[in-house]
Design goal:
Layout (H helix, E strand, L loop, with lengths): L1 H7 L16 E7 L6 H11 L5 E7 L6 H6 L6 E5 L6 H11 L4 E4 L11 H10 L4 E8 L6 H18 L11 E4 H4 L12 H7 L3 E7 L13 H20 L13
The protein binds guanosine-5'-diphosphate and magnesium ion.
Guanosine-5'-diphosphate binds next to strand 1 and helix 4.
Length: 259
Amino acid sequence: MADETHKDNAAFFAWPSPQPDAPTVSVVAPMYNEAGGAASLIAEIASALDGVDHEIIAIDDGSNDATVDELAATATRQLRILRHENNAGQSRAIRTGVLAARGEIVVTLDGDGQNDPADIPRLVTAIRAAAPNTAMVAGERTKRKDTAAKQWASRTANGLRKRLLNDGADDTGCGLKAFYREAYLRLPYFDHMHRYLPALMRREGFDVKFLPVGHRPRAHGQSKYTNIGRLMVAIRDLMGVFWLNGRSRSPGGVREMDR
Ligand SMILES: Nc1nc2c(ncn2[C@@H]2O[C@H](COP(=O)(O)OP(=O)(O)O)[C@@H](O)[C@H]2O)c(=O)[nH]1
Ligand SMILES: [Mg+2]
């Protein structure tokens, strides 16, 4: 029965075939003033994906440090570097990366090295093994390596979001996610949308799975967010996504008729 539903929804859940020479996986890493750790993160990603056909897209989001020079100096062949003229935020940087991506599957991770690239192959395997209507496998940090204040703020915000949006996610702030590029491109863009991907994917009728992943302390640079700043935008965004959810109607399934 489940299989039949998927067949009926084939057009809806179709991920168009990528170009013949396109890599299978595109890794997208947004970076804003991440000098000191940028080059080593790229090397770690390349080594985690050794043997997998992939590209790495780093988006320098108008940094005013040496991030872009460090990236340019790396020897990793499969690295592409995109640069925003102005700082436009993490969500916009991710969007730029996904638009540029040539792979059918996109994996995002934070550009500061707090996500462990060694988790990427597990996410890719999980999304490939999932049912066709699963558009995303999202990482969830089980052991956070952040300050107690940040962990408390994050737990509180995550709890409120989960109750209001019913998105099944315990930790949407985790930057490590694997999704089909085509599914992501169907989502509405707004600043900070990267924290609402499970809710936005479900709103489009897709299923989302979660996978525990590692987390590391920040080894270089500084966090770009403050608790109070994040709280202010979180309230606004929560209201926005709550409204979006209320304004969504589902066809239940899509069937192409034989003729
Ligand atoms: N592109 C872009 N990335 C950002 C911006 N602010 C933060 N980031 C990136 O988003 C990721 C998470 O930010 P971070 O400051 O580490 O947040 P924290 O881990 O919650 O403290 C890092 O890779 C940052 O480089 C921004 O304005 N633009
Ligand atoms: Mg961080």
